[in-house]
Amino acid sequence: MSAPNTGARGFDGTPLEVRRFEHGSRVPGWDRAADLTKDPESVRDLATTPVPSELRATIERAMAKYPDRRSAALPALMAAQQVHGWCSPEAVVQVAAVMRLTPAYLDALATFYDMFHNEPVGRHDVYVCTNISCSLRGADEIYDAMREAADRVSEVNVIGFECLGACDIAPMASVDGTYVGPLTVEDTRTIVDDLAAGREVLEAKQLKRRKAADTLAAAQPTSAGPPMEGVDAPDEGAGPDPVQPKETDTE
Ligand code: FES
Question: What's the gap in Å between 175 CA and the centre of ligand 1?
Fold first, then answer.
């Protein structure tokens, strides 16, 4: 297979294959052009546009946080996506009616940010980071295994993504917003099983359950001086594995 035309070239002038963009966020179609033959959409009348009451309340709460209601456009679209499963034309029209904006304004956002779905997808989003830190620790293999595992069910979307800001647990993924890592190939199957069973995903590898990013932080004094009471002292009962959930963690 020839290398995709990424524009990048090696020292000898031959096109370079930049693999991570194959499954990265900027996939073909993201810059879909507007249909200029259609009449522009106007601002819908909320009185004649049916909007689920909970969705309307969520959007109005978001708008109340900002002096300019347009600042709430992203959380409003995300709330609609959670209700409809994707940013369908109906979902966009509902948000537009509540926010008193044109659907085109919101459509421009929904088609730009790749955490919005512009087509029907499964209920669960798994973003596998394929950026440099994760890539160096086997992210491509994790991504392929995740896709293969998700093929068994229809409700899991696997999306390659750029750095998710949790390089210390590379290779990692975000599963419906929960960060998990470092991942193994076996973990990808567990993630799908957990999602299918409605369980917490990879509970022992969730970032929010780690005691510290530095695995030695709880056990050793800092280099700045002797241990400070209540700050540097190791937790009573802290085990050797820093990814084990805390007993007191109620999340
Ligand atoms: S490179 Fe994967 S989280 Fe930063």
Answer: 14
Give the helix ranges, DSSP H, for the chain. Answer: 53-63, 73-84, 89-99, 103-110, 132-136, 139-150, 185-197
Residues 128 and 9 in one domain: yes
Using N-to-C axis directions, what is the helix angle for 73-84 and 89-99, rounded to 10°?
A: 140
Burial class (CB in 10 A: 0-12, 13-18, 19+), 223: exposed
Does one domain contain both 18 and 126?
Answer: yes
User: Does the model's pTM come out above 0.70?
Assistant: no
Tell me, in angstroms, the distance from the centre of ligand 1 to residue 217's CA. 21
Q: What is the pLDDT of residues 163-196, one digit of tens each?
A: 999 999 999 999 999 999 999 999 999 999 999 9
Q: Which of 23, 126, 164 to mutate to test the pocket of ligand 1 (most atoms within 8 A of CB)?
A: 164
Residue 85 φ then ψ, to 5°: 90, -20
Name the percent of the chain in helix, strand, coil, to the closest 5: 35, 10, 55
Pairing mode, strands 124-129 and 156-161: parallel
Range of the domain at 88: 46-110
Nearest in space to 188 (alpha carbons), one of 237, 248, 136, 128: 128
What's the CATH number where 56 sits?
Answer: 1.10.10
pLDDT tens digits along 29-79: 555 666 788 887 788 899 999 999 999 999 999 999 999 999 999 999 999
- The length of the chain, given as a count of residues: 251
- Count structural domains, the chain: 2
Q: Are residues 96 and 126 in the same domain?
A: no
